[in-house]
Amino acid sequence: MSDIELDNDTILKFKYGDESAYTAIYNHFYNHIFAYCKYLLPAIEDARDMTAQLFILLWEKKDALDSYTNLRSFLFLNARNKCFNYLRDQKARSAIDKQISDFTSSEQTAILFAEIESELITRIREEVEKLPDYYRNILNLSYYQGYNNQEIADMLQISEKTVRNAKSIAIKSVRMIFLNRTTQMGFTLSLYYFF
Prior knowledge:
This is RNA polymerase sigma-70 factor. The protein has 195 residues and is an all-alpha fold. The chain folds into two domains: 1-120, no CATH class; 130-195, Arc Repressor Mutant, subunit A, CATH 1.10.10. The protein has helices at residues 8-15, 19-40, 44-60, 68-90, 93-129, 133-144, 149-156, 160-181, 185-194. The longest helix is centred in the middle third of the chain and has 37 residues, at 93-129.
């Protein structure tokens, strides 16, 4: 996943058709839109297909999207509407009406959790970026690129134990920063989930 922030410059480049900016936006929002579609739809494959359709639509409508708020609203509102339309097509109207009313009462909770997750990931990445290059590189290879300890050791020509030790030191550093910067226990505990 890209660590590029969704600043105004990135959003403006996307508006005018820059593919690297689109990739940054895709990477920033994909997991949250997929989680929301998965919450609304009965099958993971349906959620995956719906998410793909939404990002195709996002590209097609890029001319009208010029801010982070617009991007987020566009994706979540279209996810909601398209998922409900899909469910209507799959089931009889009488059965789906009750399901939609149930979703309406809890969908704000789903969006809230997606936003909290996004904020946590952003904050964690900000702190990882402040680490010395050596530790930051190992964390990026492990958690963002998916390499295991031995693969990282082979790439960096160091021992697997050295990789494990470096990851441990880096994670402790990030945890300490969170302990010092926030009184919200949720942020601190969340590191155990991500790492």
